[in-house]
Amino acid sequence: MTVSSCNFERAISEVKEAFFGKDAIINTVRCIAAEQSDRCQDPITDVIIMMMKTPFSPALTDIGFMPFSLCPTHVIPYTLVTKKQLETLIEMCKAFSISSRYISCNQMGGGIFVGCINNIPEGKYMIDPALAIFACNVIIECNIGDDFKEDSETSVIISNVILQRILAGVNVPRERIIEANEMKKEWIRQKISNQRESTKIKAT
Q1: In terms of pTM, does the model score above 0.90?
Q2: Residues 76-119: pLDDT tens digits?
Q3: 187 is in which domain, residue-wise?
Q4: 101 plus 183 within the same structural domain
């Protein structure tokens, strides 16, 4: 593997981690789903299924970052991209500039497109299904209106309904679902701990 190829692979991996790693995937799913809210009745479920079926193949357009070039309507506006994420996108552009593994063109209907050529090995850059379901579960937890609880009945019921919809569209190994649930519990425990610390600080 050449130096430019190594730089290309590393840049793609860093962008993937910046947007779909454990610390970022919740916000990423929110952003993509929000952009789809006018196009479908259940944007969260649709986005999660799409993420599990579609390889990560990043591209840049004039309106935002496109994580899945095979799904051109799923775009994250640059205004919602964090500084860290922007830095990884800049590094990706630098890797593109010294690599032959990218394409630059005008899109149908107007606008520019700069992205990977689709020769990435199948499965290499798929989104971790456990992380995708974890993000879905946390978003549900944050929107039910209850105080954070590790085993909130409302949250569990809604999460199970959404999970059944997801499983109707894509196969997910049982161990990945269990891992997603454990990550959600860890996330809630951390939230509860942070809230208690904040309460203590305010009381002093």
Answers
A1: no
A2: 999 999 999 999 999 998 888 887 777 777 766 667 888 876 55
A3: 129-203
A4: no
